[in-house]
Amino acid sequence: MEGRIVSVCCLLSLLLSQATAEEEENFTSVLRDTSHIEETLRFATEEKAADYAAAVQRLRKIYYSSIKPMEQAYKYNELRQHEISDGEITSKPMVLFLGPWSVGKSSMINYLLGLNDSPYQLYTGAEPTTSEFTVIMHGEKIRSVEGIVMAADSSRSFSPLEKFGQNFLEKLIGIEMPHKLLERVTFVDTPGIIENRKQQERGYPFNDVCQWFIDRADLIFVVFDPTKLDVGLELEMLFRQLKGRESQIRIILNKADNLATQDLMRVYGALFWSLAPLINVTEPPRVYVSSFWPYDYAPDTSRELFKREEISLLEDLNQVIENRMENKIAFIRQHGIRVRIHGLLVDRYVQTFKEKMSFFSDPELVFKEIVDDPDKFYIFKSILAKTNVSKFDLPNRDAYRDFFGINAITNFKSLSSQCSYIGGCLLDKIEKAITNELPALLSSINSGKQPGLSSCEATGCGEKPKNRYRKN
Questions:
Q1: Which of 89, 177, 263, 324 could covalently link to 93 via disulfide, CB atoms 3.0 to 4.6 Å apart?
Q2: For the residues of 338-405, what is the DSSP string, one character each?
Q3: What pLDDT digit, counting tens, does each position of 325-367 carry?
Q4: DSSP strand E in 139-259: where?
Q5: What is the model's pTM?
Q6: Cβ atoms < 10 Å from Cβ of 223
Q7: What is the pLDDT, as a whole number, of residue 121?
């Protein structure tokens, strides 16, 4: 009897092992070829790291010598709440994944990085799984980094996130791993939008955190599931935050092989109909239709079409990676333009205040009149008369009422007095950076020339102003 039991157990064990082997064989057979990812993103291509490092060094030099001094002198950070850190200048392009819960954002990152069935893949499932902001970045070895550590490290570009509080930092996690794609780009996976959840229930300002990442993202993938295209209040709020960033947005209709071709066409039309009121632009964002995960497509799927869509998306991603230096220069130049306009406006407020003050005047009443009705004193109109100032770049008038409510007008000097014999004038330096230095750096990159530093720039010496009283 005992021998029979042993033989039955052995037979069951043999059958189970055969079944497991067959399952593994069937499982591996449904994995589709992903070699096009490596080919399209050109992993084998060697980058000119020395040229890129030289361009970054030149950009840092221009920012810290020509733009940062005016930022600090006129407290620009308190107006726009955006101070550019060293980590932000040297950071890689950021790709942000947004969208409702369980649409395949984490699965898409796993697919692009080849993390499926590895111990380090992002957790996925049919239920809302991602509750943290997950930053996937390059590192020499695989490890996780706590949000508190990421915010404390000034060499990274995430130190400003500390302002959102400890509750948020507990929901921020970084994952470092050695990967060819992560050498060129950083991915950010976000918690899925749940329409019946209020922002307060998350324990931190979710919309403000999303806005921070949106403002710094080079490419924004908004992912949808074709079987659930519900557009609610939280998704509407998200698209309001994306205003002005339409050129960075790409819409992903993921899991598209779950529907027949005819149904997919209807869903495609329904998606545009739902999003049309939210994206009010002449040219809508590009929509990619495919199934971004490693397993084989469902039967009767347009395989060639889906593969072409994937390659097109990868080319889009590759374009952002290759243009990262140009985008960074353009971003710093745009920032410099805003700082210059802010400096000109504060200078105009200072001059107007001095002109209206008399021996018997009450300083508070005089300045209250100016800040309450700046148009009466032609403050904003006078700035438009300056060179290279567009009316579309002027900040909101009400923002300066709040700005001067915190910073007394008497704390600021006029631009004409912001000059030194060694360092030059703040206005001249920032204008030179905007009109000459940054465009020259951009053209040197496009022409393939290495943007070297002159001896004066390397030592940090400034341009001496001309002496108006000295005869030539």
A1: 324
A2: HHHHHHHHHHHHHHHHHHH--TT--HHHHHHHHHH-GGGGTHHHHHHTSTT--GGGPPPHHHHHHHHH
A3: 998 999 899 999 999 999 999 999 999 999 998 888 888 899 9
A4: 143-146, 172-177, 186-189, 219-224, 249-253
A5: 0.75
A6: 23
A7: 79
